[in-house]
Specification:
By secondary structure, the chain is α+β, with helices and mostly antiparallel strands. 37% of the residues lie in helices and 23% in strands. It contains six helices and nine strands, in the order H-E-E-H-H-E-H-E-E-E-E-H-E-E-H. A hairpin with a 6-residue loop joins strand 4 and strand 5.
Length: 197
């Protein structure tokens, strides 16, 4: 079910958040664990939703000590687009390399990887490729970024197949990084299914 976008009235004030933060963070980390996928050694996806974005906004307000309406609205405007709309999934895609020298070399080889991430409903379904970094300028880059924001726009056939019990798979088919998760774990499939109308 599509989550509503965040508004100021669902957020805690700074003092209230300071008191609730430890327990709230524990809940959110457990929730994120159910929405995380690893593809190979270096690719991790967190599928975002209203709760993960509420946590992100609360953390940004805390770090910036933001309490004025304009500042709060600016954070909401930045993070609300990452909440799924009922016919899509939105994910933060991390490329993780511990060694900084290796990271730079690998990111140069992985240009365009963000456009080669896919999901599929059922064994014979078509791959749906992610739309990456919609609001970022990606012209003339010499390497890919370590973090990307993805949207998987799903048609009615895909949603119907998944709701009808089809398995869910995801993968990357870049020439220098090819991995697949077929099928995705049941807890992730169940969590993602709840995002759809």
């Amino acid at each position: 079910m599509a989550a509503e976008k965040l508004t100021r009235d669902v957020l805690m004030g700074l003092e209230q958040y300071a008191k609730a933060r430890t327990e709230f963070r524990r809940q959110v980390m457990a929730h994120k664990a159910r929405r995380r996928a690893h593809l190979g050694e270096h690719a991790t996806f967190i599928f975002e939703d209203q709760l993960t974005m509420r946590y992100q906004v609360q953390e940004m307000l805390r770090i910036g000590r933001i309490f004025e309406a304009a500042g709060i609205e600016a954070e909401l405007s930045a993070y609300n687009p990452l909440i799924p709309d009922g016919d899509n999934w939105k994910a933060t895609f991390h490329l993780e390399f511990d060694d900084p020298r290796q990271r730079a070399k690998r990111l140069m080889r992985l240009i365009g990887i963000e456009d080669r991430v896919w999901v599929r409903a059922g064994d014979d379904g078509e791959r749906v490729y992610a739309i990456a970094d919609e609001d970022l300028d990606r012209a003339a880059r010499k390497k890919t970024c370590a973090v990307h924001f993805l949207r998987f726009q799903l048609d009615a056939h895909f949603v119907q197949a998944l709701k009808g019990g089809a398995s869910l798979a995801m993968g990357i088919d870049h020439p220098h990084y090819a991995e697949a998760l077929e099928p995705v774990p049941a807890h992730l499939r169940e969590s993602l299914l709840a995002d759809l109308d």
